[in-house]
Specification:
Length: 269
């Protein structure tokens, strides 16, 4: 399979990590939890960038809506104006998706690792600690036994984490982020329980991260409103750059007029 062959180096890395974590914890299920925590710690820089990007995007929502309303009858011109606005204000709309996209290779690689778990890792390192809290076995499908309970926990944690992380998103993006977890449920029934355990731990991490972010990270103040006579930011910067290095801004003031007092009684001859 092409995807499996491309992800083979990452699969080997995850297998190596699980083996060493199993030697430390004595449990395959808690090894997956520990692996999830390590992956999320490595993604912290991307997550911080995601938070700043969403705050920056939210701060400029009024200006973006004004551009959309102005060019709503010309979609091509509206897209051009929006791209220019993003560039001028250093906004990257795709930055909010970086942590999720970075996790997808790990998710698929772990799926292939668990698929051959019994033939490779268990055969060489034993089957101790395959169950999680006595409810599910990580090599079985999620729909078996108490697996549906794991799916319920996944759905609740996914909705909670999505709600916290989408506070600064636009309504359409936020609605899509909240709908996707429910839409994925029919597809995850045949996933190994260990994979759902990985995703559940990820959601719990994201939920805690969202609570900490809302508590500690200050919200960015919206930019000052510009009137119709205010020159564009690019024009102001170009004018400043064109000035001589030693030139100072001096307000144009009228020359000072000196008043002369007239003597009373006039002059005598």
């Amino acid at each position: 399979m092409i995807v499996a062959s491309v992800l083979q180096p990452l699969e080997d890395l995850l297998s190596w990590a699980l083996i060493h974590l199993h030697d430390f914890t004595g449990s395959w299920s808690w090894s997956i939890v520990a692996l999830t925590v390590i992956v999320r710690m490595l993604l912290v820089p991307l997550t911080v960038r995601q938070i700043h990007s969403m705050q920056n995007l939210q701060a400029h929502v009024p200006e973006m809506k004004a551009i959309q309303n102005r060019w709503k009858h010309d979609r091509q011109r509206m897209n051009q104006e929006m791209m220019a606005f993003y560039k001028e204000n250093q906004i990257n709309p795709a930055a909010s998706c970086l942590p999720t996209l970075a996790q997808l290779p790990v998710f698929f690689s772990l799926f292939f690792v668990l698929k051959d778990f019994e033939k490779e890792l268990i055969a060489s390192h034993g089957a101790g600690g395959l169950d999680w809290l006595g409810l599910v076995t990580i090599t079985q499908d999620t729909k078996v036994g108490w697996g549906p309970l794991l799916i319920v926990l996944y759905a609740v944690s996914q909705l909670t984490s999505s709600y916290l992380m989408s506070q600064n998103m636009q309504p359409a993006q936020r609605a899509m982020l909240l709908i996707l977890p429910i839409a994925f449920i029919p597809f995850v029934l045949n996933f190994p329980s260990g994979l759902m355990l990985y995703w559940l731990t990820t959601n719990l991490w994201t939920t805690g991260q969202g609570i900490v972010t809302r508590t500690l990270v200050p919200k960015r103040q919206p930019p000052p409103k510009r009137s119709s006579r205010t020159p564009p930011k690019a024009e102001v910067q170009a004018a400043e750059a064109a000035k001589a290095p030693g030139e100072r801004k001096v307000a144009a003031t009228p020359p000072r007029v000196r008043k002369v007092k007239k003597k009373k009684g006039g002059s005598r001859r």
